Model the fold of this input.
Amino acid sequence: MSAVTVTDGAPSPAPLRRGGGWLRALLLSCHPLPTVAVTALATALAAGAGGGVATTALLGSAVLAGQLAVGWSNDWVDAARDAAVGRGDKPAAAGLLPVRDVRAAALAAAAAVVPLSLLLGWRAGLLHLLGVAAALGYNAGLKSTPWSWVPYVLFFGGLPTVVTLAVAGGAAPLWASAVGALLGVGAHCANVIPDLDDDRATGVRGLPHLLGRAGSTVLASAALSAASVLVVLGPPGPPGALGWAGLALAGALTASAAWAALTSPRSRWPFPATVAVAALDVALLVAAGGALTA
Done:
């Protein structure tokens, strides 16, 4: 597929859709599903690690602000590129929302994340800000390089320690950080796979684009499988029945996803299977939350 020319500035506006409204369009521009999912993960980890109501709420607020900044900045930076490939699901690209409004929201969220993070303590705050900065760097250009996976590893790998520093003042166990980093790699691949063709058309060449659909699915499956093993076997003590059951289910899902990707390139199964394994790993990590500060 030949590359689509992307011009600077806002895309030409399309007629506004009826219904909804400005606020709804702005909320849709923040990538609400990953924003809510990551915020819920951090909040659940803090509660499971023994955080009080105030600390857990503050951590959730800091993570929410960071994810809003990341989501809005993505739609701000990519507005012209998304418009070039007809991304009607992106309000700014579709002309339903001025790009300047998305930019203003991103900058406001980025400003809010600094004090909210530092209120967690300077070590937890700086580590969280490093993760958010890495994610913003992804939007700014790292997504188009072979190092596109690095921001995901930095953010998700550091998130357990952000939680434990805020809750108990110490670093998370190595196994928890490794689980987070592996989840980051799996999330990166799973997030990009549906958009590979559109990204290639606009010149984006991150690691998943270099690997292709099958290679990215295999990498995501391998990373999430390793995360499943670590999250079950990493905490002290023998795994319970729930852990073994989760590990078996994760293994079956990842094996089926990898097999489908390698034998049936047009199969739609690998993506939902990979997302299901990621959700399962997150659930197992949250269930092991008490082990983060043990």
Observations:
- The chain has two domains: 21-171, 173-294.
- The chain has twelve helices and no strands.
- Residues 1-19 have pLDDT under 50 and may be disordered.
